[in-house]
């Protein structure tokens, strides 16, 4: 509702000098998982957390409080963290934050210059063979918002797994896990 000087006014009210105009909107934030954000490592320069799926890294769209940055500030009193990289909202995994501007710049430089290797483990449904499946096609992000990717010549180059194949579940007709390493 629209207020002037903390009081409701008629639509034909004319603003006066020093009037305080406010529009109060009541919003319900989109729910996220109740799975906790766990701190894997913390020192004076860096914080590493395990981010569950469904929680965005920083405020965006309909998310403000249900974000990794806000939750770390509220639950762990970790304020002024510098986001080094991000994971899509629907992606779980390790997330790095710099605690100082200098360390954040150093880590961003390493990522930008491809000195950091990213490894993605995905779980998919379907009737898959038990042998290793290598994807060497470039992968392009279709939508960062909903976390959709596709094989495309415009995408980043995919590399075969850099370590031995593994599964989090026994391969069945219903599910299996795969490792994917992207350049940069």
Automatic annotation (TrEMBL):
GO molecular function: pseudouridine synthase activity; RNA binding
InterPro entries linked to this entry: PsdUridine_synth_cat_dom_sf, PsdUridine_synth_RluA-like_CS, PsdUridine_synth_RsuA/RluA, RluA_PseudoU_synthase
A Pfam family hit: PseudoU_synth_2
GO biological process: enzyme-directed rRNA pseudouridine synthesis
Gene3D superfamilies on file: Pseudouridine synthase
PANTHER family linked: MITOCHONDRIAL RNA PSEUDOURIDINE SYNTHASE, PSEUDOURIDYLATE SYNTHASE RPUSD2
Protein name, UniProt field: RNA pseudouridylate synthase domain-containing protein 2
Organism: Lygus hesperus
Gene name per UniProt: RPUSD2_0
